[in-house]
Amino acid sequence: MPLLLIITLILVHPHISAAAGLCHPDDRAALTAFKNSFTNPNPFPTCDPVFDCCDWYGVECNETTSRVIGLDIAPYETLTGSIPSSLANLTHLQNLRLHKIPNLVGQIPPALTKIPKLRFLAISWTNISGPVPHFLAQIKNLAYLDLSFNRLSGTIPPSLPTLPFLFALDLSRNQLTGPIPETFGHFQKTAGFPAIDLSHNKLSGPLPSSLSNVLFSSVDVSRNNLSGDASVFFGKDKAASSIDISRNGFEFDLSKVSFMESLDVLDISHNKIYGAIPKQITEAVFLQFLNVSYNRLCGEIPTGWKLRYRSEPWENSSFVHNRCLCGIPLNPCK
Question: Which of 27, 39, 119, 249 maximizes the CB count within 10 A of its CB?
């Protein structure tokens, strides 16, 4: 690089030193190896030696230690290759996000287990394949795991809920098969109120009854081939704000279900749910979206809703295609 350009860059960015930067040499070497692992001739133009590596594309450094704590590569449609094991050399990394990289292929590397401080891991909207690795449960500080919109297959590792701080798990929009593990009813108490999204997969089998043990903050298991009793997600003592169990084969008596006040989204459509809609549902004052259509429900639709944030009445589409539901907004009961 011409000397005049180097001097100009230093004048424009006074925190940059051409001789020595703030970035730790080990982190610079790891990021350089990460960059060079891809087939593109120059995937990250800002990753130039004249810049301190804390100023490289997608890189976040700790302001005190100058160690790399975050790497966010998104979106990057031209990036081609697989996830390199050299990421393990970023030993202080806490947040890793690889998002909307359609030419990112291969499997999730075991080297990620060598990043002890990793808390946030998102590898989404890529073409990575293979299984959801069991070894992810070895990353003990992991609190947020998003592997959505990929080509992952196989079963869900039963070890994931053993992670002591895992409060958000998104495995949606993959090709996962098999049942939801029984261990998903045993999330660690240190995880608080976990949120799970397993939607748009090929999961099958009955739900484990152990799920009733967990105070989920959000549940989405829609668009699978699951069966059995999904009432395990409900209860006045539960904390979920959103429950979507639609487009499965669930079969249970809705009239025996109680609803949490915190609920704002409820979609149980396209199942085999029977019974009546409990009057107690009107106490879900935060409810804004409701869909119970395409089931086997009967009886009168409750009235006297106490909705705080929805002023318009429910539409027909929320209740249609049931066995014998009646009342507003459907036809009057006879």
Answer: 27
